[in-house]
Amino acid sequence: MQNFSSNAELNNQINPKKLNIVAYFDQPSGPEFDNYRKVASLLRDDCVFWFGIGEAFRPELAKGNRLEFRPLNVSLQWIMDKCVPLVREITFENAEELTEEGLPFLILFRHPDDVQIDKIFTEQVARELFDQKSSINCLYADGKKFVHPLQHLGKTMEDLPVLAIDSFRHMYLFPDMKSLTVPGKLRQFVLDLHSGKLHREFHHSPDPTQSSVLPASSETTFEKVRIYFTYIEISDRHK
Asked: Where do the domains of the chain lie, and which CATH numbers do they carry?
């Protein structure tokens, strides 16, 4: 986040070619300021976040803390579409913040040098899940760093790329990465989560139609995976 002491300073420093989020706060503390700081950290690569504090902004603060967008002629939906990319990277640093958004994860574990699969995954998400942005978080993860979740899924670096849904109760493996680009396959996988089919087949036998989820290990294993995403061990951070 970038601090400014006056609107004149803000106007001199702001880049009108970028998407800017400007906030005015009475003081640099409290739930609203803390939430703004979290969002700024999460979306630091997509938007520029500014904040002004205190008496110098009394007119702006007349009705309480204030948030505005620059340029001003954009809608909130446009801001959300531009500020929150379709696919984001999950890291040790932002895992807890992503979890706090409350949406299940669709995670692509891949080798960090595999640029091609990143492109393919992003294209498929844009094509198949354009209307699911508010119901699932599409993410990619460095398979070398997130080795523990892969191990609990029964996978290794040699199995990358691996695609899975984390519902925070279970994890469900996408059955065949070769079918990722088959029209409708990725979308059906996500819709099966929302309909309860993946959860039902996890506990019982597959539905009469072909199952969308591969057999997996115990619930305890999946809970451990979730914990790794939200409370990463300190030793892993410094490897």
From this structure: 2-83 (3.40.30.10), 88-204+223-229 (3.40.30.10)
Burial class (CB in 10 A: 0-12, 13-18, 19+), 122: middle
CA 4: distance to chain centroid?
29
**Tokens 């970038």 identify what position?**
2
Q: 3-state class of 139 per DSSP?
A: strand
- The answer to whether the predicted template modeling score (pTM) of the entire model surpasses 0.85 is no
Query: What sections of 113-207 are H helices per DSSP?
Result: 115-128, 147-152, 185-195, 197-203
152 Cα distance to chain centroid: 21
Cis peptide before 104 (omega within 30 of 0): no
Please give the biggest Cα pair distance in the chain. Answer: 67
- Would you give per-residue pLDDT tens digits along the chain (239 residues)? 999 999 999 999 998 888 888 999 999 999 889 888 888 886 777 788 999 999 999 999 998 999 887 766 555 555 555 566 789 999 999 998 899 889 999 999 999 999 899 999 998 998 899 788 889 999 999 999 998 888 878 899 999 999 999 998 888 999 999 999 999 999 999 999 999 999 888 787 676 655 445 544 434 333 444 444 444 443 344 44
Calpha distance 129→148 (Å, rounded)? 28
